[in-house]
User: Fold this.
Amino acid sequence: MQFTLTGESQERERVLSHFSRRYVECNPEVTLTDDAVHGLVCAVMLLNTDLHGQNIGKKMTMSEFVENLSGMNEGWDYQRDMLKQLYHNVKAAPLQWAT
Assistant:
């Protein structure tokens, strides 16, 4: 799957915010708030850039990814197993940005 987030940062922020709200609406079993989903989406996008960007030196480790998100779920920690799975998934299959 490929997607493009173009335009000004305010436009991209609106898209990500809408996505986060819609994700929570469509997945009632998820116990995360809109803000928690938004933070996680942004973290995954940054992780993808860190792991697969061409101009990145030292790549982020799984432990660093988990630690970076400590307390970012409305003051609580995200489930560690979920973060580990996200890390491994992004590392194995990078997000493809459309050009």
